[in-house]
Design a protein that fits this description.
The structure holds 3 protein chains of 3 kinds. Chain A contains 8 helices and 10 strands. By secondary structure, chain A is α/β, with parallel strands linked by helices. In chain A, helix 3 packs across helix 4 and helix 3 runs parallel beside helix 5. Chain B contains 22 helices and 20 strands. Classes of the chains: A alpha/beta, B alpha+beta, C mainly alpha.
């Protein structure tokens, strides 16, 4: 899985992140190894505090690992300066935070368009991309709104649109459906599925198994360590052996 | 594209926080205005030549040549001459005020003047700047134009009627004053004599028909002003030394115009600089406050690909933009305020007060640089904010000190304790807020001290030794005649016969001026700031400057020579007297007579009744004497002090603005920090009023502390600073007054009330939002 | 299958084929409809217990059909069933056995078991999610969502097991 061949989008080796605050140290990520192929959709599963967010922050260059290496497109990136990481985040990496993370003094439209502009889009392209994403997420009417005035679920979707505005090669999203209702979750899932179908590489941290179930691969994080990293088998519905019911139907079977 | 992204953010930010943008722009505009006005006043008061020179497109060198000297070839013959003004015909004459129509005739004093013939069309080079009335016209009743300072000395204005008389008295012509004009051609009257009157060529010939009595005057504009001496030599060589009468260079004119007392401009410049410091602090406050408030946003920008350098550049560009707008506004404001400030002040004209381009450039450049410097550090910090700041906010934390616990346990309302404690949770912002408020407060206190001092000077000039407002020299009258004349005048409260005598002090190269003022039995009412007034022969009082020059102290003896007669004075007191360059030794007139020294020149120092104008009284006395005495109004320091007070008021306003900016920043920061606290406090059972009180107190405590520091230090410094400055000018210590308690109380109360007000709005808003946030968990 | 049949008959008398159709219509795929034989066997047992009784209805064109009707005793049994609270779903017994006994016997790695089971659950979740996306009727969709929530609970429980092992 962690092979350094041309199909590897992202690879991390022995990533460790230790925080020191008020004299006590906490290790959020300890020796995590993982890889992501181009076009692959992987989820990081784990309970709160398992280090999912920190792992994503490290992979997006938002924080510097205490030790370990990161390769992006075969290029070693863990030692890059803040400025170089920033340049990578313009086009290569779209990052979405767990809690909205929108620029408060800009409108919804500005938030999305500025990200597109940073990615090198022209003004017209940026406006087009904004229109497209917001429409898909059911937020087209909110273009002129101030983010702080919106409910969390709407902010969350705007943040996803912002992360995808520059058509990044890799989307890193932290709990993109946290706090969303059913309809909004479905809209986000649809957007992710469509992007994935178009070849978007996605690494997503989530606790929502419904979102996770759409992934190609599951990385289970436990106490900062990778406990499991394996492709998700196809839905067992099709695996109908002799004398054995479809597992899905088994789940649904009403017993009296 | 990235630039567009940056521009988009800047625009959004300016729109979202218009108040902050306005504050920064306003502070910059205020400071630029203050500095430009100070520079203008300083320039006008100390070196008016530069402004006049550029306003009149003056010539650097002026030559009086024998009649008939050809100067047409001068430009071609002497290298480095850019332009030639003239030649104008000029002749010496006398002028006197015309008597009342129908009276016996003109019997006033004759004053020597130079008449200079110019046409109705103003020349390009050396064009007199008309300040009132109008320039010469081609009409036969055109009249004449007087040089402004000369007109002021003669007490004439546009419309006055004068009598011009040829030197030999053979022709007399009554003329009307068409206007007054300023020029950089020659120094101010009476430093520069004779006075200058511009007339039409016809009138000149009418007054002085003899061509042989007429000079030719030419002005030369030279390429290298520093080398005017060389140019003069070449011209003299070219024209022949016999044809060249007098020569004046711009250096001489500049020197003669330079005032001895730039105190006023200096005070203003000092305040302007303090205002700049306060402004820089305010901007540091605003900027670092906004960086703290916008941590999450800035982290977000980093997340979407802004590099540290771009964040730095963006903040700097935004502030540079605001500063630029502020500078333009300041330029406009200064332009508008200058006439208001200088209007009606004698001797300081608009043209003279024009701030040289170099100075303006330094002020503007300096202000911009200061703003950018003030922005740079917080902006650099902003650049270094980690992208995760977008989500990982670091709320300030701290613990309740034992003191706080004890105070709360002792029954102090928790709102007070929590609010006061919250003020210091963020150490650096707290320190910035305190200094950002204390420095304006300090400066305002000093300003109020200056104000009080100036008030005192204006109310009772006697306190700075200016008891007499008119001096009368007997002129062609005998002393008893003059005495009778003065005693007959009902406007005079007291008159003191006085003598001025130069004395030589052993070891000193120059003579010093001593004054025998009144007698030791009836001494002139000097304002004694130390020791006593002279009450016996051989007792004397002196100014600080003289004491310094002679290296003696009050109580010591000083020996000096009056024309070979030694006199020993016992210095019994120190006085304040701004005249004679501040170096004055005064004693009873009888001392000199007792010692047998001659008293060469007598004059009267008159103390007028309250409310009598010195100028009017002087003119009346002269008229009453039939022009035989020379009555002079002592220059009234209050004339210029009015400007200083106006400027002080403006500066205090600027400083208040910077303080307010700091306050608003502090309260915004507090609101941000305590939005969550507000909810928690409410949940803990504090009433809404108590919650608001806690948040208001947070800012108010800082304001209280700063005001205490600022006003306290200001009080300590104010009188000393004023005295130190006045000592520099020989006035000696003792002139400084502490700020009036009312004014200071108003300033302090206003500051604290503003602090409470500035935080009350945000506090109640944050109380509501805080509760909402607590509920939604965001 | 006794209670669903009693409940349907409480509405109106019906014959076997009608009951089968109604079951299918209500529950859709969620309750794979039993074959007609099973239904008749159940109906006969119910009649034997006196909960329903039947009579033949003569049809002109087709063979006679047997229509079943609820008896008073049957209605009472149905009401008692409806009145009784239901127990919740229990822990997946088989996996729990594997987890505890597999480790005991030393022949299976617990973490491996958990991981494999998690992937299995996720795969099921994907299937359910796809099913949910295609479910257009209210009752089946509720059932699928219920199943998904149970799966989520199972996944959470797996997490709990993992924490306990650590």
């Amino acid at each position: 899985m962690i092979g350094e061949h041309e199909h590897t989008m992202l690879r991390a080796c022995s990533l460790t992140k230790t925080f020191t605050a008020n004299g006590s140290t906490t290790t959020a990520v300890r020796g995590a190894d993982l890889g992501l192929r181009r076009g692959e959709f992987a989820v990081v599963l784990g309970s709160p505090g398992s280090g999912k967010s920190t792992l994503l922050h490290l992979l997006g260059g938002l924080e510097r690992p205490t030790s370990g290496q990161i390769w992006l497109n075969g290029q070693r990136v863990d030692g890059l300066s803040q400025a170089r990481w920033a340049v990578l985040r313009r086009r290569e990496i779209g990052f979405m935070f767990q809690f909205a993370g929108l620029i408060e003094n800009m409108t919804v439209a500005d938030n999305v368009e500025v990200a597109a502009l940073m990615g090198g889009a022209s003004r017209r392209q940026a406006a087009g991309r904004r229109q497209e994403l917001l429409t898909e997420l059911g937020l087209a009417d909110l273009a002129g709104a101030a983010p702080a005035r919106l409910p969390v679920s709407e902010q969350q979707r705007v943040a996803l649109a912002r992360a995808m505005a520059a058509r990044p090669a890799l989307l890193l999203a932290d709990e993109p459906t946290g706090g969303l209702d059913n309809v909004a979750t479905l809209a986000v899932q649809r957007l992710l599925a469509r992007a994935h179908a178009d070849g978007q590489s996605i690494l997503l941290a989530t606790r929502d198994s419904r979102v996770a179930s759409a992934a190609d691969r599951v990385i289970s994080l436990f106490d900062g360590m990778v406990a499991d990293d394996a492709p998700l088998p196809d839905a067992p519905r099709e695996v109908t052996g002799p004398g054995r019911r479809s597992a899905v139907r088994e789940v649904l079977r009403l017993r009296d | 594209m990235r630039v567009r992204a940056m521009a988009r953010w800047i625009r959004a930010d300016l729109r979202a926080s218009a108040g902050r943008a306005l504050a920064i722009g306003g502070v910059v505009a205020g400071v630029v205005t203050a500095l430009l006005l100070s520079a203008g006043v300083l320039q006008g008061a100390t070196n008016p030549w530069q402004g006049l020179f550029s306003a009149t497109r003056g010539a650097q060198v002026w030559l009086h040549l024998a009649p008939g000297t050809g100067v047409s070839g001068l430009r071609a013959q002497v290298p480095g001459i850019e332009a030639v003004a003239g030649p104008y015909a000029a002749t010496a004459a006398t002028v006197q005020l015309a008597g009342q129509p129908g009276s016996a005739g003109e019997n006033g004093q004759r004053t020597r003047v130079e008449l200079r013939a110019m046409s109705a069309r103003l020349p390009d080079i050396g064009r007199p700047l008309v300040t009132s009335g109008h320039w010469l016209s081609d009409s036969p009743t055109s009249g004449v134009v007087l040089e402004a300072t000369f007109a002021q000395a003669l007490h004439v204005s546009a419309g006055s009627v004068l009598v011009l008389e040829s030197v030999d008295g053979s022709t007399r012509v009554r003329v009307r004053v068409a206007g007054l004009a300023e020029t950089a051609d020659q120094g101010f009257y009476p430093d520069q004599t004779p006075g200058l009157i511009w007339v039409l060529p016809g009138l000149l010939r009418q007054v002085e028909p003899l061509a042989g009595h007429t000079d030719e005057v030419v002005g030369l504009r030279i390429a290298d002003p520093a080398g005017s001496g060389v140019a003069v030599q070449q011209v003299v060589t070219q024209l022949g030394s016999s044809t060249v009468g007098t020569v004046s260079t711009w250096q001489q004119v500049e020197q003669s115009m330079a005032r001895r007392n730039p105190l006023l401009g200096l005070v203003l410049a000092l305040f302007g600089l303090l205002a700049l410091v306060a402004a820089v602090l305010a901007i540091v406050n605003v900027t670092s406050g906004r960086v703290l408030i916008q941590r999450a946003d800035l982290g977000m920008l980093k997340t979407i690909g802004f590099t540290p350098a771009q964040v730095l550049a963006m903040l700097t560009a935004e502030h540079a933009l605001l500063a630029g707008v502020g500078v333009v506004a300041g330029l406009v404001a200064a332009k508008l305020a200058m006439p208001l400030l200088l209007g009606g002040v004698p001797g300081v004209s608009m043209a003279a007060a024009a701030v040289p381009a170099g100075w303006a450039a330094v002020i503007i450049g300096g202000t911009l640089a200061a703003v950018l410097l003030a922005t740079a550090v917080p902006a650099w910090h902003a650049g270094r904010i980690l992208p995760v700041a977008a989500v990982r906010s670091a709320p300030p934390h701290g613990h309740l000190s034992r003191l706080a616990m004890a105070v709360m346990a002792a029954g102090m309302p928790p709102a007070v304790v929590l609010g006061a404690r919250a003020a210091f949770v963020r150490r650096l912002p707290a320190a910035l807020t305190i200094s950002g408020l204390a420095i304006p407060m300090l400066t305002i206190t000093i300003g109020l001290g200056c104000w009080a001092t100036l008030d005192e000077v204006q109310r009772s000039p006697a306190d700075i030794g200016m008891a007499a407002s008119v001096t009368v020299a007997p002129g062609s009258m005998t002393l008893p005649q003059a005495d009778r004349l003065i005693r007959a005048d009902p406007q005079v409260q007291a008159a003191y016969a006085s003598v001025r005598a130069d004395a030589l002090v052993p070891g000193e190269t120059a003579t010093i001026t001593t004054l025998g003022m009144g007698t030791s039995a009836r001494p002139y009412p000097f304002h004694v700031v130390q020791g006593n007034l002279y009450h016996a022969p051989e007792e004397a009082v002196a100014t600080q400057a003289l004491l310094d020059a002679l290296q003696v102290h009050v109580g010591q003896f000083v020996r000096m020579w009056f024309g070979g007669v030694p006199v020993t004075f016992h210095v019994v007191g120190r006085i304040i007297d701004p005249q004679y360059g501040g170096e004055v030794l005064a004693y009873g007139r009888d001392t000199l007579a007792d010692e047998g020294a001659t008293a060469p020149l007598g004059f009267y120092s008159l103390v007028l009744r309250h409310g009598i104008s010195a100028g009017v009284a002087a003119a009346r006395l002269e008229r009453a004497s039939g022009g035989r005495v020379d009555a002079q109004a002592v220059p009234d320091p209050a004339d210029q002090l009015g400007i200083v007070q106006g400027a002080l008021a403006g500066l205090i306003a600027v400083l208040a603005l910077t303080g307010l900016t700091t306050l608003l920043t502090a309260s915004l920061l507090g609101r941000r920090d305590h939005q969550r606290d507000a909810g928690v406090l409410a949940a803990m059972g504090l009433t809404p009023l108590q919650v608001t009180a806690a948040l208001v107190l947070r800012t108010t405590v800082l304001a209280l502390l700063s005001v205490a520091i600022g006003a306290g230090a200001g009080l300590l410094i104010a009188t000393r600073l004023i005295s130190a400055v006045s000592r520099l000018y020989g006035l000696g210590a003792g002139i400084g007054r502490p700020p009036s308690s009312v004014a200071l109380a108003v300033a302090v109360t206003a500051a604290i009330a503003l602090a409470a007000l500035a935080s009350a709005g945000p506090a109640s808003r944050s109380r509501d939002r805080g509760q909402a946030r607590l509920v939604t968990g965001r | 299958m006794r209670m669903p049949l009693l409940a349907l008959l409480a509405k109106e008398p019906a014959h076997g084929y009608e009951l089968r159709g109604q079951l299918e219509q209500i529950f859709g795929q969620a309750y794979p409809a039993p074959n007609i034989g099973q239904i008749y066997v159940t109906l006969q047992r119910l009649e034997r217990d006196g909960l329903v009784h039947s009579q033949d209805v003569v049809q002109s064109t087709r063979p006679n059909k047997r229509v079943y009707e609820l008896t008073d005793a049957g209605r009472e049994v149905l009401l008692r069933w409806l009145d009784r609270t239901s127990d919740g779903a229990r822990v997946r017994d088989e996996f729990f056995m594997k987890l505890t006994l597999g480790a005991l016997s030393g022949s299976a790695d617990q973490l491996g078991l958990i991981n494999r089971q998690r992937r299995h659950y996720l795969a099921q979740m994907r299937g359910l999610a796809e099913l949910a996306a295609s479910a257009d009727r209210r009752i089946p969709r509720l059932l699928i969502e219920g199943a998904m929530l149970h799966l989520q609970a199972d996944l959470d429980w797996l997490q709990r097991c993992q924490e306990d092992l650590a």
